[in-house]
Amino acid sequence: MNGPPTDTLSYILTLPRISIKRVVQEWNVFFDIQQTVQYEIYNEEGVQIGMMLERKTGKLGAISRQLDGTDRPFCIDLIDMQGNILLSVTRPFKVIRSHCKISIPYNGMGNGMYSFTDNRWKKNDRKYESIEIGECNEKWTFFKKKYELVENGRLFGKIKSEYLSWEFPIFDVNDGSKCAQVTRKMSNWQIEMFSDGGIYSLEFNPNGSHSLDLNKRCVVLSTVVAIDFDQFSLHSKDESGFDNSYY
C-alpha cells in the first residue's frame, strides 16, 4: 500500500505551478448556510489532479460552522482523484491567530479513504495513523499579513504581505530568497461579491534558484488554506461579524 499516495503527492507538489479553486456552494450563496469547504486542484493544462475536502463532523460540526464561521476548528484532506488521502491540514479553534498543523498518512494508510458516490466525495470511517511534518502559523501584527512555515520543528519560510495585497511571497529564512508564492486571482465579479469562491495560484521556485523538498512543499500548500480562511472568507465570518484580522 505504499505506491499511489506518495507518487501522486510527489507529482502534484513537484509541478512548477498549480491552481487551487474554492468551490462555490449554493447554500452559502442563497441561504447564508456554511457548508464544508471544498477546493479543486488543477495543473497548468487545466486538468484536475486533486481535491481538498473539509471533513464533516456531524451535527456539532454543522452548528460550529454556522456560529463560529472561519474561526471554527477544521481538518481538510488533500486527496487524489482515486480517493487516497495524501496529506491533512488541521486547525483548532482560532483565537486571534490561526495555527495549522500538516500531517501525512503513515505508510500509505490513507489509501481509499474517500469514494465518489452520488456525485460527491464521501469519507469512510476507517481509522489510520498519520505523521505530523510541519506547521503554518499566523503571526500577530498590525495591518500586515504574516505567517511562519515550520518543518519538523524548524522554521524555514516566512510570509510578509501588505494588508490589502493579494500576493503572498514565501521567503527562505536563511538566505532571504523567494522560494514560492501564493497569489489570489480575480474571479468574475458575481463570485467575488456574493460568495467565498476564488482561485489561487501556487508557484514553486518562481526565481529558478531555490528548490524545496517534498515536506516543505506540503507546508507551503497548507498556506493556501490558511490564507483563504484568514483573509478572504468574508462571507463566512462568525455570527458576530467581527473581523479580528486587523490585530
TrEMBL record:
Cross-referenced InterPro entries: Scramblase (IPR005552), Tubby-like_C (IPR025659)
Superkingdom, taxonomy of origin: Eukaryota
GO cellular component entries: plasma membrane
SUPFAM superfamilies given in the database record: Tubby C-terminal domain-like
GO MF terms held by the record: phospholipid scramblase activity
Alphabetized Pfam families for the sequence: Scramblase
Family according to the record: Belongs to the phospholipid scramblase family.
Listed name of the protein: Phospholipid scramblase
Species of the source: Pichia kluyveri
